[in-house]
Design a protein that fits this description.
The chain is mainly α. It folds into 2 domains: 268 residues, no CATH class; 248 residues. The protein is 74% helix and 0% strand. The longest helix is centred in the last third of the chain and has 36 residues. It is globular.
């Protein structure tokens, strides 16, 4: 066993130097989500009436439990911070841990780096334990930083640290699950999709079980529900985190056992062979073959999102009511019932659009991974031009992001209009279509980065981070228009509330086209790594 772990410390230090920055964005996002809740609560819900209205509205709306979990005492800063951060923050921490582990385990095997390292004095188990140590330490730092900053922003210190502990436990649990998936899947891409799919299923299952008020034993069948049983701010129970830690250690043991038995560069489940005859028709056929499994997963996810958000739109009147704080967050401060519903649907479509940009960015950044794995140069040695090769993932990213936005948006509109909310079907469909250029603008930031400065791949996600932050926090902090204008979704007009101006969305579409053109030009001229 000791010989199998030889070189683990040296490999860990190398991973820390080269891949340690992978966790920094996740630490920043989760900390901002948790700390901002404590910071804005006294400002937005300044009166007892607003706080009681929030508690009543959230408690009577089961759709919110699917996203944020069951609410506790929302009349306090601690209760609001826990409700807004516990489930969603844990999900983001788990997502960051999954990405880190799959990239530093199977990702290195796929690129050939692991084989080069294995030729030196490096034990077989070290190649798995070092990436796991990186993810576990990153999750620990995430929990400590998020808890400390949340406490400094006004929440109770004990509650904040327990909340941070739930983030750490989520990261440990799903980094271990990602290690198991890395042994099952045939490559890093499939391993990542498998682990994220399990996370999404457990996340939605937790929300459904809590919403339906099922027997308590059903919650213990879901590891994510274990973490919510800590109940920060109420019972402040720490021991469920030990259960999550125990399961994480069991998963590590399973991953180590499988890692020691599988063939290097292969998964426990072998990939299906290609057709005996025929060929892939051009770069579009190649990109589709690579990403078709991912496309199916995202389509299923957006079907669920459309139903959840559509149901939420039917009860927005009860949710917002006369509560100015909730109206500020969910309905852009609208006052009349019709304006509230219309503004709420626009806000929901913005969130759908931001999420729809994620798979598109993944497809574009995957080109960089293929480049580093030396699979791009052989393609360019054929008559295939650089422009055609670059436009294939970019084009599929644009098509997929637009389709997902239209899919979820169409379901939301159908449910909202059919439930007698007062929305006009034509105006609502137009609202969905006007959201698509903003989605494209966010997606084309990735094309600009990969085409010109691929060494700074994290910058490809700037559009998502900026849009998400300004959408959720901009109205609550009452930012000026010039600041909100950095989000392309801010320029999408609200259809049906009067005479809408389409100049802003036209400018956004032009900017999206310009970003794509600059990315294509840069990829045509820059060296291929």
């Amino acid at each position: 066993m000791i010989r199998s772990c030889a070189g683990a410390w040296t490999l860990f230090r190398a991973l820390l130097a080269f891949d340690g920055r992978r966790f920094l964005p996740w630490i920043a996002i989760v900390t901002a989500l948790s700390a901002s809740s404590s910071l804005v609560y006294p400002w937005i819900f300044s009166t007892e009436k607003d706080r009681m209205g929030l508690s009543s509205a959230v408690g009577s709306n089961p759709a919110l439990s699917l996203i944020f979990g069951t609410a506790g005492d929302l009349t306090t800063v601690d209760g609001f911070a826990v409700w807004r951060g516990l489930a969603l923050g844990g999900f983001l921490a788990a997502l960051g841990a999954i990405v880190t582990v799959t990239a530093t385990t199977r990702g290195q095997e796929d690129s050939g780096q692991a084989e080069l390292l294995a030729s030196g004095v490096l034990g077989r188990a070290a190649r798995l334990l070092a990436p796991l140590a990186l993810a576990w330490i990153g999750s620990l730092l995430l929990g400590l930083i998020a808890g400390a900053v949340t406490a400094l922003c006004g929440a109770d210190g004990g509650v904040s640290m327990l909340l941070g502990g739930t983030f750490t436990a989520s990261g440990w649990l799903f980094s271990s699950l990602a290690a198991v998936c890395a042994q099952i899947a045939s490559d890093a891409h499939i391993a990542n999709d498998l682990a994220v799919g399990v996370l999404a299923v457990l996340f939605l299952a937790r929300g459904v079980l809590e919403t339906l008020d099922t027997p308590e034993w059903t919650l213990w069948a879901n590891p994510l529900a274990w973490i919510s049983q800590t109940e920060p701010g109420e019972s402040n129970t720490w021991w469920p985190l030990l259960a999550a830690l125990g399961l994480a250690l069991v998963l590590v043991g399973i991953a180590c056992a499988a890692h020691g038995r599988r063939d290097f560069g292969q998964g426990m489940i072998s990939p299906r062979g290609g057709p005996a005859t025929g060929r892939i028709r051009g770069p579009w056929g190649l990109i589709w073959r690579i990403h078709r499994g991912t496309v199916l997963v995202w389509v299923l996810l957006f079907l669920v999102l459309g139903v959840v958000f559509g149901y939420l739109s039917t009860s927005v009147q009860d949710l917002v009511g006369g509560n100015s704080g909730v109206s500020t967050i969910l309905a852009a401060g609208a006052t009349t019932q019709e304006d509230i519903t219309r503004s709420f649907v626009k806000t929901i479509l913005t969130l759908v659009g931001i999420i729809a940009a994620v798979p598109g960015i993944q497809m574009i950044t995957r080109l960089r991974a293929e480049e580093l794995a030396f699979r791009v140069e052989p393609l360019l040695a054929t008559p295939l031009s650089r422009v055609r090769l670059f436009l294939a993932p970019v084009g599929l990213a644009l098509i997929l992001s637009a389709f997902l936005t239209a899919l979820a948006g169409g379901i939301i509109v159908s449910i909202a209009v059919g439930s007698g909310t007062g929305l006009e079907r034509g105006d609502s469909i137009l609202q969905v279509l006007l959201t698509i250029p903003a989605v494209w603008a966010v997606t084309m930031v990735a094309a600009l980065v990969i085409g010109n400065r691929p060494e700074v791949v994290p910058a490809a996600w700037l559009g998502v981070l900026i849009s998400f932050g300004l959408t959720l926090l901009g109205p609550t902090f009452k930012l000026d228009d010039w600041a909100l204008g950095f989000s392309p979704f801010w320029h999408v007009p609200e259809v049906g509330g009067g005479e809408a101006s389409y100049t802003g969305v036209l400018v956004v579409a032009i900017i999206a086209a310009a970003l794509g053109a600059l990315g294509t030009l840069g990829f045509r001229r820059r060296p291929i790594s």
